[in-house]
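If you are new to this repository, start here. Below is one unmodified record pulled from the training split, so you can see the exact layout before writing a loader.
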Amino acid sequence: MSTEPDDLHDHRPVDDMRGKSILVTGAAQGLGQVIARQLAARGVVVAALDIQDTGRTVDLIEAEGGRALRLRGDVTVQSSIEEGVNEIVSTTGRIDGLVNCAALFTTLQRRPFMELDLGEWERALAVNATSVLLCTRAVAPRLVAQRAGAIVNIASNVVSYGASEFLQYVSSKSAIIGITRGLARELGDHLVRVNTVSPGMVTTDITVAQHGDEYRKRVIDTQCIKEPIRPRDIAEVVSFLLSDASRYITGQNILVNAGSHMGPA
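And here is the target side for that same chain:
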């Protein structure tokens, strides 16, 4: 008699995400918007949440044949997030995952750490790191109750090599990796997975305007694959980590940087 698991030879696709409901923070623009659109293209009902209006994101998703909820909330305020989660559940009847993408980046001022404004330091930690805790607190009880779900936190490749005069950003993104690993341990017994995606320099209108062609070319020269990283390249990895195809991946920091940095051995 065979002792193999019943599903050992079951080759049905496990990356089918149709019908799932996932909250994406920071979804009004940039990478968050692209992640939301990519998930919707795979049949996910996307709850697009941002402190800014997410109407443009929802319009794009619906024009592409997808479904999305237009939510407005502050990821640094627990009650604001919980209101959004309650709306998701009341509308779709479920919630299956969370993407913590909300972040401060372009508005942060580069300056020596001795001159760093403590107010900006605290705000960066609140939006970039503490929000991960607060959003997870709002979503996790429902994932635990159904013994299924996935959370993806967006950090940055900058954590791997540091960055001069940008301590508030590097520190806040570094914290995300620690939060991910702690949450993975706490939620693993409930079959809830938690991972981090750390993008390299992603080519967007914002990064083009901020860094210019010459700087971006220097970054690309450090990559093994010398092509610009597109937002959709990050979104594809996020989608994979939210799907059942990654059911045994948790507590990991996935570098999506075309090989510019390969992490520890």
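Two things worth knowing about this chain: The radius of gyration is 19 Å. The domain at 21-255 is CATH 3.40.50.720 (Rossmann fold).
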